[in-house]
Specification:
Layout lengths: L1 H19 L7 H11 L5 H4 L9 H21 L4 E3 L6 H16 L6 E7 L16 E4 L2 E3 L2 E2 L5 E2 L7 E3 L3 E7 L10 E7 L17 E8 L6 H7 L2 E3 L5
Parallel strand pairs: 1-3, 9-11
Antiparallel strand pairs: 2-8, 3-8, 4-7, 4-11, 5-6, 9-10
Helix pairs in contact: 1-2
Length: 240
């Protein structure tokens, strides 16, 4: 999918350059691409084959380059100790892969597995010294409608601050029967690709925006309803 997107972007820009030089005819499609570039919007021709994003063109390009660099470094230097979960095109496939590896190593049916979560105190993912023994570390998520305290629970978001970054999170595969958000007094926080939150179901019954839910510990004075009313959610990317 990334190769298809990369080919679409490079081919369309090459054709646009040729049209501006007068070597080929400026088609209506190329005109629309030129207009989108002028007004700092991602051309529809690109967004049709792109991952979910609501960024402006400048932010989208920066994000796209960062994703390409993430995978190049993965190929050149091996899997990172902490995975940039925001960098995947189809995040659900990565999460399924983590569960599959655990299921094979433990000889467990994958349908009996889910994720348990440990919110670490690690703010800088580059300081993760080694991969997780079980599961994997992830980074790159932002919290909206709430904030995460260094004491290990949800707190109210600071005034005039719409979002804040989350620490490194440890995804730990576990049997469904062993994970209980009620006993953990946790808010089952949805994770979305973008702040739009709404999504479209694909042929595989996966939303193109919803990724998964993460159990976030609450203070005793708060209930799930409190954070639901706040619209608390985790985002894989911001709008800017």
């Amino acid at each position: 999918r990334f190769n298809r997107l990369l080919d679409t972007v490079s081919d369309s820009l090459l054709q646009l350059g040729q049209a501006l030089d007068g070597h080929i005819i400026m088609s209506h499609q190329l005109e629309r691409i030129a207009h989108s570039l002028y007004v700092n919007e991602v051309p529809k021709m690109w967004s049709k084959v792109s991952y979910a994003s609501v960024k402006t063109l400048a932010g989208w390009i920066t994000d796209f380059i960062a994703r390409m660099r993430f995978f190049h470094e993965w190929v050149d230097f091996g899997a990172p100790n902490s995975m940039w979960i925001s960098g995947f095109f189809f995040t659900q496939s990565f999460l399924t892969g983590v569960l599959q590896n655990y299921a094979r190593s433990r000889n467990i049916v994958i349908d009996q597995l889910t994720f348990d979560f440990e919110i670490t105190s690690i703010e800088d993912f580059s300081t993760v010294s080694r991969p997780a023994d079980v599961g994997c570390y992830i980074h790159g998520l932002f919290i909206e409608g709430a904030a995460w305290s260094d004491k290990g629970y949800l707190v109210e978001a600071p005034v005039r601050k719409l979002s804040s970054s989350m620490p490194v999170i440890l995804l730990k595969p576990a049997e469904v029967s062993q994970v209980d958000s009620v006993k953990q007094h946790a808010y089952v926080c949805p994770v979305y690709n973008t702040s739009r939150r709404a999504g479209i179901l694909s042929s595989t019954y996966h939303s193109d925006n919803f990724i998964m839910s993460v159990n976030l510990t609450m203070q005793k004075v708060h209930s799930v309803k409190h954070w639901t009313k706040r619209g608390a959610a985790l985002l894989a990317q911001l709008d800017d």
